[in-house]
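User: If only I could read backbone structure tokens as easily as an amino acid sequence. Those tokens are not coordinates but codes from a learned vocabulary of shapes. Could you go through the record with me and say what the backbone is doing? Here is the record:
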Amino acid sequence: METNKTCYICNKECDKGIEILGSYICRNCEQEMIDEEGSELKMEYYKSKVKSLWRNNLS
């Protein structure tokens, strides 16, 4: 059973998701990122958050 964690993308507490580079991404955000129906603006937001996650872990 997973404990509640705060999503790096939406900042909401969720109990299911994935951990990437020490940061948590909830299932809702994960699904939206892989969904082909997402808007271009939303995809740009997700890309910037993932880039930020990588930058934070490389420094």
The longest helix spans residues 40-58. The chain has two helices and four strands.
